[in-house]
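Re: beginner question about structure tokens

> Can someone show what the tokenized structure looks like for a real chain? I only ever see the sequence side.

Sure, here's an example I had lying around. Input first:
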Amino acid sequence: MDVWISIIISICAASTPLLIAATGELVVERSGVLNLGVEGMMVMGAVAAFSVAQLTGNPYLGAIAAIFVGALFSMLFAFLTLTLVANQVATGLALTILGLGLSGMIGEGFVGQPGIRMENIHIPVLTDLPVVGKLIFGQDLIFYISIALVFGVGWFLFKTHAGLMLRSVGDSHSSAHALGIKVIQIRYLAILFGGACAGLAGAHLSLVYVPQWVEGMTAGRGWIALALVVFASWRPGRVLIGAYLFGAVTIGQFHVQAIGVAIPAQFLTSLPYLATIVVLVLIARNRRLTMINTPASLGQPFVPDR
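And the corresponding structure tokens:
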């Protein structure tokens, strides 16, 4: 039983950064903006969290710094795409390249240093309960934030007037503008939220999942988060399911290696990315399913005076 609990806890740790980043990107895409810079914002959040935690000795300050840096990076994307009307795809790719390069330069002095881990929460009596104690009451703070984000975003999008306006902007920015909705302002706020989430996802990587700094430590998780949004058909609840499925695949490869199964390690390492490709291919085969929740204005630029 202890082994299974450890495996489930490992899956939670592997899934949390994917869940946070994908939830933030879901809000961005629901507003009609396609930000491919998630990977760059995540890695900048990871290096910001690690460096601030090292300098202050406080991992919580590191997480706050990661949120701020992720949001700052997202504002660069927002300014270029919303104000200067630059191409969203090209700008997102440039943001990822910038983040990977800049994080490598900033984190060069921290390579090899032992990290300061964000400890798991311990609630007397509850955390000590058999089986469910560590699973439900003994996780790290960012894990609980990730779960709250999913339910909070679901409530915001489908139960509030502000969420309805955001979805209307994503479905038809011209109609929303004609009704007096401030399209650019809403998209700025959505991108800001997505960037903050990506930064926090990066913080989880360098403070909890692997408490150290390694250049390029996001290892494509930002791209998986983007695929998760499509996999979930832009629905928060499905993002939760998808993130944990991908987390299980990621952790599964390590346990397969541990028990000595004769499968090349390189193949096992590629499993999460192969799973991403397979899922996207399966979704693409069902065009009706893809189009049901796809924001109609996704990726389209908007200029109010045109």
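Each token stands for a local structural state, so reading them left to right follows the chain. The CA atoms of residues 107 and 301 lie 35 Å apart.
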